[in-house]
Structures are given as structure tokens and as C-alpha cells.
């Protein structure tokens, strides 16, 4: 596990990004839900959707400074890794570490929102919301990592910010027997997205190398 964390730090190296990613944004998101509880009497499901919406926006924007453009042809994002014979291994381990970190962050934020206000909401709905949110994030990053321009990712994040919560709300409302389905669907997306990203990243990695040699 230590190797995965070390590989992840290769991409998430700036201290201010670490502070935002690990501390500020998760606590701020839960804090927003707490603020809503103090000044409104809305049900727990609403707080879950607010938390999920903030997560989608924050994860996409912060990812620009870590893996942004990693799947874009002609990118120089992976060039410095060619100094090591373990270049693609580092990419592979860092992507897995990022997925685990994001799932833990999702569980922490949505569980925090649930503890603050769970009125009208069951534990099963919380679990469905966690896996639905994680799935939306995985698919969103699969698209956003084809771009390294912050403005493009920002525009994309606004679109997903509006569409993603609708799916998450449906997942929360249709929980029960479907909760297991969302869990299985997330695992499928988790594995498939990693395979797709690695295939694309490997192509970008070696295509850029061959272009420079020619």
C-alpha cells in the first residue's frame, strides 16, 4: 500500500492541492450541510444531494492539478515519468490510489451529511447515494482527463454538476433491493474505467515517445 501512496504523491505533489483535497474541501462540504441544518428544515436527502453536487464540482476541478490531460494526445503530463523504468507502473498505482481515496472521501462526506441530518432518510439510501455518487465521479473523470485546460474542465464540471445529482437522487429514492445493484454497477465502472484509462494513458505515453524519436 505504501508504494501506491508514494506513486499517488508523484501526481499530487503540491502542498496546497493536498490541503484542499484531503482537508479543506471534505470538511467544507460537511460544513455546508451543517449550515443548511441551522438555517433550514429540509430533509436529509436534500443534504445528500447538496454534498454530492459540491463533491462533483470540487473533484473535477482539483483533478486538473493532478491527472488533468493525462489522456490527451500530445500531452506532456507523462514525459517526466520516462526518466524512470517504472513510469507506467507509477501511473497504474497512482490511479488505483486515487480511486480508493475518492471512495473514502465520498463515504466520509456523505456519511457526515447523514449524521448531521438524516431525517426522512434510511441507511440503505445513504449507501445507495455513496455508490451512485462514486459512480458519477468515476465516469466524469473518465471524460475530464482528456482535457488539460482548466476552463474546459470547469465548463464540463458545471454540466455534470447539473446532471449528476439527478441520477444520484434517483438512486437514493429507488433504494431497497436496488442498493445491491448500485454497488455491483459501481464495481463494474471502477474496474472498467481503470482499464480504459490505463489503455489510453499507455497509448499516449508511447505515442509521444515515438513522435519525439521521429
Mean pLDDT: 84
Mind summarizing the main beta sheet?
none
Tally of individual helices: 7
- How many beta-strand runs? 0
Flag low-confidence runs.
210-214
Number of domains: 1
Coarse shape = globular
The percent range for helix content is over 70%
Structural class: mainly alpha
Strand content: under 5%
Radius of gyration: 18 Å
Distance between the first and last residues' Cα: 38 Å
Element order, helices and strands?
HHHHHHH
For this entry, give a set of tags.
214 residues; 7 helices; disordered C terminus; mainly alpha; 78% helix
Write a structural description:
The chain is mainly alpha-helical. It has one domain (2-213). Helix content is 78%, strand content 0%. It has seven helices and no strands. It has helices spanning 2-11, 15-39, 44-63, 87-116, 123-144, 150-173, 178-213. Helix 1 (2-11) crosses helix 4, helix 5 (123-144) runs antiparallel to helix 6 and helix 5 runs parallel beside helix 7 (178-213). The protein starts with a helix and ends with a helix. Residues 210-214 have low confidence and may be disordered.
